[in-house]
Amino acid sequence: MSEPIYDERYARPGLYWGSKPTGLARDVLRIARSLPRSPRTLVDLGSGEGRDSIYFARRGYRVLGVDISSVGVRKAERRASRLGVNVRFLVGDIRTYRLSRRVDVVFCSGALNNLPRRIRAARFEHFKAHTAPGGINAMNADVPKPYIPPYSMNPFSSPFRSGELLGYYGDWQILDSGQVEFVSNASGVPHRKAMDVVIARKPDPDS
Ligand SMILES: C[S@@+](CC[C@H](N)C(=O)[O-])C[C@H]1O[C@@H](n2cnc3c(N)ncnc32)[C@H](O)[C@@H]1O
Asked: What's the CA gap between 12 and 122, in Å, rounded?
């Protein structure tokens, strides 16, 4: 269970991850503009303090943010309400959380590594099955690199194999995929990270 680590981080004043949206969230909006039908509904898995959920909601999406940290969820709710943005957040575990209906976008930035390997295939099947035809999944996952010293702020996370994330979307249209490398300073200890990124579109028989 990883929530005590994040609870402790989110209980500190200020925003642990900052207020700016992730690059993945910005990429989703850019790509959504070129889709035949604009996405309207989005679930943000591992929504943290809500920076991306709020970003999407401000741009007209109906958003549900799900995070295991109740401290993060309450902080996200308070921030959204302070900003006058309508977003629903709930405490949930992405290892077991079941979407009750289809959404246009399943989004997950920075949280997939909390999925143990043995349940990943089943979880992706669930996320894909609960995506509307023509909708998208936008995901990233930490991957180890031989030239980057291992560093994890979360002892419960397990890395993806390089290319593993893309492999879950072999039957979808790949709109964007690749690897990003950057220096993260969120913990106060700068460290390099590599992430695989995938934005994939579910086939739509009507388009
Ligand atoms: C690296 S943070 C990213 C937060 C947010 N997506 C962002 O970019 O600001 C990872 C998030 O995943 C959440 N998390 C970890 N394990 C989880 C789980 N099993 N179910 C749901 N959320 C989880 C943590 O509480 C944390 O908020």
From this structure: 35
Question: Residue 59: inside a domain, yes or no?
Answer: yes
Is any ligand 1 atom within 6 A of the Cβ of residue 69? yes
Position in ligand 1 atom list of the atom nearest CA 69: 25
Q: Which of 27, 56, 68 to mutate to test the pocket of ligand 1 (most atoms within 8 A of CB)?
A: 68
Which atom in ligand 1 lies closest to the alpha carbon of residue 17? 9
- Give me the domain span that covers residue 189: 3-201
pLDDT of residue 189: 81
* CATH assignment at residue 33: 3.40.50.150
At 141-160, the pLDDT tens digits run 999 988 888 777 676 788 99
Q: pLDDT averaged over the chain?
A: 94
The answer to whether position 152 is within a domain reads yes
CA gap 109, 47 in Å, rounded: 8
The pTM (predicted TM-score) of the whole model is 0.96
Average pLDDT rounded to a whole number, residues 132-138: 98
Q: Is residue 25 part of a domain?
A: yes
Residue whose entry in the numeric block shows the structure tokens 């397990």: 158
Dihedral angle, C-alpha 206, 134, 42, 123, nearest 10 °: 120
Q: Give me the number of domains the chain comprises.
A: 1
